[in-house]
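batch_manifest entry 22 of 60
target: Zinc metallopeptidase
source organism: Heyndrickxia sporothermodurans
requested by: lab member K.T.
priority: normal
notes from requester: please return tokens only, no post-processing; we will run our own comparison against the previous entry in this batch. if the run fails, retry once and flag.
--- input ---
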Amino acid sequence: MEFIIYYIIIALIPIWAQLKVKSTFNKFAKVPTTAGMNGAEVARRILDENGLYNVKVVEHSGFLSDHYNPMTKTVHLSSSNYHGQSVAGAAVAAHEVGHAIQDKDGYGPLRFRHSLVPLANIGSNASWIFIIIGMLSRLPNMLLIGIVLMGLGVLFQLVTLPVEFNASSRALDQIVGLGIINNSEERNARKVLNAAALTYVAAAAVAVIEMLRMILIFTNISRDE
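--- output ---
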């Protein structure tokens, strides 16, 4: 019964975060900015103000699929944010440009996260193979290898947090400082960015909890040996 409750909680955390993001975004996607700029214009304005003329802004399919690609130096905005003139769209566009500014400045946590990508991918894909073998065969060394590999993915999730929070901080500074939103709209933009950050916090929390559970299982198996 305890395992069922545990897995329900683990499943509900990211679902709750996603619902919070969608409800907050949908609410403020209906609130236009006084500047009347769409997301593409917001992104372009901030990029140019920071000397990032080489960074492109392109439309991207999907809902809240916005992201910055450091390899191609491109800000991808979902269609609703690319064309929309809302507080939510301005906040999201500015956030992604925040990553481009981090890239330009050589922001340490961002570079560290990029270096972790291949290791985190390997760790996330291979960890459960060793964990399952270790648990079924009661071999602590196999389980330990799986935990170490899992740790690479957990580290990536934890490093992502300061990267995302810093990008949001830069975003607010830019859209307020450039007059893209006024002081009364800043509170709503902050709500959008804080809600989006919940998805990363939830992912990190679930990853840490799962790793702690594996460590506890490893301790119990080692004690029985």
